[in-house]
Design goal:
2 domains, six-stranded mixed sheet, disordered C terminus, Rossmann fold, 33% helix, 24 strands, alpha/beta
């Protein structure tokens, strides 16, 4: 029997009033992809931080190659070849790609930094990942989210990792980038590297994993599961009961008078990301934007929300044509945006739930020049309760909520604002299976209430199940407008840029 590369034995981690880990056992062998799944709050992040030495466990031990690691010592973990890629990337925006890759273990020639060698090694690692197009001298702060993820993976590889821990590595990657990632993982495991792969996307677990461990409430509830374990069985283990991941039924179109057009986009262009995009969204309709990473989906939402100024084209909400590049007027006209990066762009982490919800419409709570705190609180809490936000504690800081409930806070803000057009950019990114189902219900409920929803998602199953129509983009240009019912294959067939179609 192959000796374990990593053994976690009876790991316990207590915080004041909370037991985050409760006797977790976990084993990874060399050359194995061991997938770790569980809901938000199941203990996955605490476990990998204990393995990486960032958190000191209360009890238990972490053993690498039969040798116990000193607890709470990240330098020792790195020295033993444990490299971790966290979901919240810890790159330095003002440094180049090469500087980020070798930060903390710089290449030197005598007493001086050998920047030429760093650039050469950076180019080699990026080529290994299939991203020769990323320039080693590029500032990380100028890169797209998907490229930043690749840089983070490349940095881990410069550490000669023997155990690579990947926490939601595909969260901002498109289908092709995910396949590139899988290729890299398979090459590494063929070389004997062990991989711990954490993902909420169970289809990825089935595609890349060798074995699966399920955590729930800080405990190991299932171990040594095959990657072919049925999805419903995994979900049942994660939530502790029989649970079917289902999408809400799409409302059948009504006959007779057509629903009014709420949003009209005509010839919208902003070089080089968006070119000549036109479409309409009716009241109560969910329209998806399909395409690969880099297709221009996020850029299109930003143009509609007025955050960026278009080169050409127009946006009309109801009968009102919006002036370009005016997010304040777009908001007053009823346009709301839930951005992809909700923590950094959609929320104020140091504020409580009430102020995060009410901030978009504080003027309505003015009473004789003063802010009515009771009216603000009542209105915000009503919207949070409508969306079943947990916990519905008005004084709770939003940073303390799970990803799914943080997303509900963003949505509650625009409900309070009485938005007519809701723009959703990757609304289920980084949230667990049960929270996804709740967000699906919320989206469908909002549409049934008459809101026009425009939704971006890299998970094609979500688009196909939730959307009445899907506008597919490739290289910033519309390639198809699909009507329900449609399939994932239909979307993908139109999402490939022309150059890829010719070479495939």
């Amino acid at each position: 029997m192959t000796a374990p590369l990593l053994e976690v034995r009876g790991l316990v981690k207590d915080y004041p009033g909370v037991r985050a880990l409760d006797g977790v056992d976990f084993v990874v062998t060399a050359g194995q992809v061991h997938c770790l799944v569980g809901q938000n709050g199941a203990g996955k992040s605490t476990l990998i931080k204990c393995i990486a030495g960032l958190v000191t466990p209360t009890e238990g031990e972490v053993v690498i190659d039969g040798e116990p690691l000193p607890p709470g010592d990240p330098a020792a973990a790195l020295a033993h070849g444990i490299a971790t890629i966290y979901q919240e990337l810890d790159l330095v925006d003002d440094l180049s790609v090469a500087d980020n890759l070798f930060l903390g273990h710089e290449l030197r020639r005598g007493p001086l930094l050998d920047r030429r060698a760093a650039r050469r090694e950076t180019a080699a690692v990026l080529a290994r990942l299939g991203h020769e197009d990323v320039a080693p001298n590029s500032l990380v702060g100028t890169l797209a989210p998907a490229t930043r993820q690749i840089v983070s993976i490349a940095r881990a590889l410069t550490r000669d990792a023997r155990l690579l821990i990947m926490d939601e590595p595909s969260a901002v990657l498109g289908r092709h980038e995910v396949e590139t990632l899988f290729d890299v993982v398979r090459r590494l495991t063929a070389e004997g590297v062990g991989v711990v792969y954490i993902s909420h996307r169970l289809e990825e677990v089935a595609a890349v994993g060798d074995t699966i461990t399920v955590l729930r409430d800080g405990r190991t509830v299932a171990a040594d599961l095959l990657a072919s374990t049925p999805r419903t069985e995994l979900i049942g283990a994660m939530v502790g009961r029989q649970f079917a991941e289902v999408f809400p039924d799409r409302t059948a179109p009504t006959t007779g008078t057509p629903r009014p057009v709420v949003l009209r986009v005509e010839g919208l262009t902003r070089a080089p990301a968006v070119s000549g995009v036109s479409f309409e969204v009716h009241e109560g309709e969910v329209v998806g934007l399909g395409g690969l990473v880099g297709a221009g989906r996020t850029e299109l939402l930003r143009l509609i929300a007025g955050l960026d100024h278009p080169d050409a084209g127009s946006i009309t909400v109801g009968e009102r044509r919006l002036p370009p590049g005016r997010p304040d007027i777009a908001s007053r006209a009823g346009v709301g945006l839930a951005p992809e990066e909700r923590k950094s762009q959609g929320l104020w982490p140091g504020w409580d739930l009430v102020r995060n919800v009410s901030v978009a419409d504080l003027r309505r709570f003015r009473r004789r020049g003063l802010l009515s705190l009771s009216a603000e609180r009542d209105a915000a809490m009503h919207q949070l309760r409508v969306l079943h936000t947990t916990p519905a504690d008005p004084d709770r800081l939003v940073v303390e909520l799970s990803g799914g409930n943080q997303q509900k806070v963003v949505l509650a803000r625009w409900l309070l604002r009485r938005c007519r057009v809701l723009l959703l950019d990757e609304p289920t990114r980084g949230i667990d299976v049960e929270a996804k189902v709740e967000i699906y219900r919320v989206i469908r409920t909002l549409a049934d209430g008459g809101i026009a929803v425009v939704m971006v998602s890299s998970e094609l199953a979500e688009l196909v199940a939730l959307c009445d129509r899907i506008l597919v983009l490739a290289d910033g240009r519309p390639t198809a407008l699909l009507e329900a019912p449609m399939s994932e294959a239909d979307v993908l067939a139109h999402a490939l840029p022309q150059s890829e179609e010719r070479t495939s």
